[in-house]
Amino acid sequence: MIRFLLSRLLTLLVTAFALTFIVFFLTNLEPSLEKIAKSEIGTRVSDAEVESWLDRNGYGEPMLVRYGEWLGVVPGWTHTVDGEVVAGRCELPGGTVETSAFCGILQGDWGWSTVFRRDVAEIIGRSLALTGKLMFWVMMVMVPGALILGVLAGMREGSKLDRSLSTVSILTTATPEYVSGVVFIAVFASTAVGLRWFNGSATSAMEDATFENFTLPVLTIALYGMGYIARMTRASMTEVMTAQYIRTARLKGVSFPKIVLRHALRNALIAPFTVIMLQFPWLLNGVVIVETLFNYKGFGWTLVQAAGNNDIELLLGVSVVSVVVVLLTQLISDIGYVYLNPRIRVS
Amino acid sequence: MTDTVTDPALEVAPGEPILEIRNLSISFFTRTREIPAVMDFSATVRAGEALGLVGESGCGKSTVALGVMQDLGVNGRITGGSIKFRGEELTTMSPARLREIRGRDIAMIYQEPMASLNPALKIDRQLMEVPMIHEGISAEEARARALEVVRDVRLPDPERILDSYPHQLSGGQQQRIVIAMALMSKPALLILDEPTTALDVTVEAAVIDLVRELGEKYGTSMLFISHNLGLVLETCDRICVMYSGEAVERGRIGEVFDEMRHPYTQALFRAIPLPGADKATRPLIAIPGNFPLPDERPPGCNFGPRCDYFQEGRCDAQPIPMVEVPGDGHEARCIRTEEIDWDAPPEVSDHRESTEIGEVVLKVDGLQKYYQVSRPGLLGGGEAQVVKANETLSFEAHESETLAIVGESGCGKSTLAKVLMGLETATAGGVELDGRAVGDVPIEKRDTRTVADVQMVFQNPFDTLNPSMTVGRQIIRALEIFGVGDSPRDRKRRMLELLDLVKLPREFATRMPRQLSGGQKQRVGIARAFAGGARIVVADEPVSALDVSVQAAVTDLLMEIQREQKTTLLFISHDLSIVRYLADRVMVMYLGHVVEIGTAREVFSPPYHPYTEALLSAVPIADTHVEKKHIVLEGDVPSAMNPPSGCPFQTRCRWKSRVPGDLCEREVPPMVEFAPGHKVKCHLSQEEFASMEPVITLAEN
Ligand SMILES: Nc1ncnc2c1ncn2[C@@H]1O[C@H](COP(=O)(O)OP(=O)(O)OP(=O)(O)O)[C@@H](O)[C@H]1O
Ligand code: SF4
Ligand code: SF4
Ligand SMILES: [Mg+2]
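Above: inputs. Below: predicted complex with iron/sulfur cluster.
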């Protein structure tokens, strides 16, 4: 168990390291840096001015060194004018700058967002909480919905119920979020159809989520993931229903509902459970689209803002968190699989 | 849910029919056509009796059983006839009434025990469920009942067993649990569909013993389905022989075995080896041709195309009815029962003289093979363990000799074969082929000659042929590897000769493996093995995946080629009947040790090694004249990862108490030589050995 956890931790570190390096590389290309400088000091400046601004703000050093600074293995940069430190990476509250100090991610310093003009850690924390809220409701709708759909469809393969439910689940997975989101807004939230049941914007849900302002974003993400999980559940359920032990149960005189609930369900859920967890990273895609579409300032929305404005440290922070989230869900999925499947648990 | 277990009004007096199947027809419907799997089938099971249903694979035995249970799946339907259980019609029964009957009055056990138990539920819940549904008793009562029944099926430590998951039990234990589950509500009728096919012979014998005993104890009637005539003889009172969806002969077991009145039944008996017969005196007679598929049945008699007594214009003119023949309810589906001389001995085409045994070809000396395995612990990791697959094996095999290697699963037979082939290398000890040491030379380092010299015929002909290559091409590939022939033309000629050798038509060269039947594939496997003029052919259970009627033909073919080519045949098998029939010498293995070796005659008569004795007693024999001593081994074969100390057989040996002290538990016994070449690995004294009685005796008549 310990060894397993260690190996997972190692994967996590390596992935995070590689991903952040790539992001760092891309965001620190010459044109990107120029764009930052221009957004800070105005667009009509000469190349020399850009150059000196970059120098003064610590962008002048070689890329590897600055990556090391961000990591916290190389001391933070300082800018000295006339022997006095006027600016630097490691600024303490109050404005004094520490020289030759380490202040990177390893020291718990996530850096500074140039777009929001706040600490990256603070932004990520808040947006994560908001996305967490969204995902919580997505899961609450998606998982039971998908499992019920899949089990109902799979318990009698080829029946009318099976065929209609399967069609529904294929339709939902086949419709990407940006399509279903727009359709939902058009139908349920705009004057075009006139059914103004829900809000087209979820901004107010950030403080106070209500049925009106949260239903559409939750539904948009949930429906997309639901079809996929439902189809997995159905496949797994139909397979289990043809297993010998289900025949054994039938020939013991167990009634159909009890066969489904007591004998089939647990075996049928082993496969979809893994899928649900692996679905998580996919759902994060949807989060980006839906949050932007519904103007909900969560993690996905933040990512879009950071990328759009070449906000280097925010983007790096978002990458690290994403890697951790993805690998954590995998870990949970492995452990859950073992729990559901006694064959692995005991041996 | 009803409160009474059995309605006294429904109680059937012994000898009265409890299950009556009349003219039952069952079809499966596929998208394109109807497959009539069972046609016009009738049978009766009487209270307190066991009816055996025998026939080859695909003849419709399981379909009958599932028809009785009314569980034919989505595409199966009963198209005619009736099934009455205690006078109540099952075919038109309401689902609710059917649920009451299933599990409480009729229970079914089928082939694969592991697949019949729910992997996610503990044993106790699966057992307790039955009486809780049918009798509405409380969980405590149900658990008490479960404990009692688990004791009844003689499982050790019932509490622990109840508390485990199916995968924590061995195959034999699982099958006992399945039996226990069927007996939980004391059903009046038990249907057993090949209940022991997946088990080892000694475990099978113990399970069969148990079924018979419990049937008597609870007064359960049984429908026992099997393809093994010997097993049916040991368990049943009446028998019904099926062929291609029909019942062809019915009657009391003794009458059908001794005075069969249907040519198919006769052919079946002539195709299986019986004691007192060996390859020289009574060769096996294969049934010619193939089993007809359900939708390709001939007009008139289904068995017509394969029947020796076929008469044109009569046998293929009209459907053949069941006719009465003398005896107690003895019937046969043949119009010539009175014309055929049933006592005429079979025609033996060619009498074969046994061949001269030649020089030593293979010499194995102190061979040892250990496997390092790391058993995965929870989520990876785990400690390394050693599987002792072969321990100090020593034997010799001569030219033109058939040496049979017998033993149950896990005894190391296949490991030995792999070391000989070079697929594994020996941990210690030597293997000499014609004086060359090959034991530690892996196959990629062997020269062409050695590779061609040691060849193998595998158990399962289905996975050894390349599915995308024609038969001819595969044999030519083998010839190329063995370096036979100088030109492609030469090799092609040789390939056609090999097809002749294994009695396949030359047109088969262009066929794909999937167009071949199991027996034909096995012939291609044999052709490949003999392609390079092999000195030694290792045949690992070469016929156990084939049907009885085909087994005889393949076995005889193997023997014939061996005789012509003076090959040494190492015949690996767990089936002692076939071993007795064809082997010159026999080597008995248990848990990696050779426990007995000698000529077939020496091994099959006393003094025996205690394990050989048990093995002989366990093998079911389809002959009413045979008297068998009844020896039942307790428990399962121990794991090779954790073998017992001292004598490998000590955990199950019934002679152990005759050895003074705890010698059997402390020391591995030495090989004791009784006669030149006959050796036994046991601590028993000469007097004890001398007191052993034969396990199998042929009654005079
Ligand atoms: N679900 C099904 N759909 C179509 N055909 C089937 C189905 N089940 C069985 N059959 C066919 O019905 C015939 C009888 O099959 P059945 O399983 O009863 O044979 P069996 O005697 O039990 O054979 P075995 O000894 O191999 O168990 C076979 O030809 C088989 O292919
Ligand atoms: S009816 Fe004719 S073909 Fe059929 S078994 Fe009898 S003799 Fe043979
Ligand atoms: S050595 Fe002892 S335990 Fe082993 S077979 Fe002989 S009598 Fe039985
Ligand atoms: Mg069957």
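The two ends of chain A are 13 Å apart (CA to CA).
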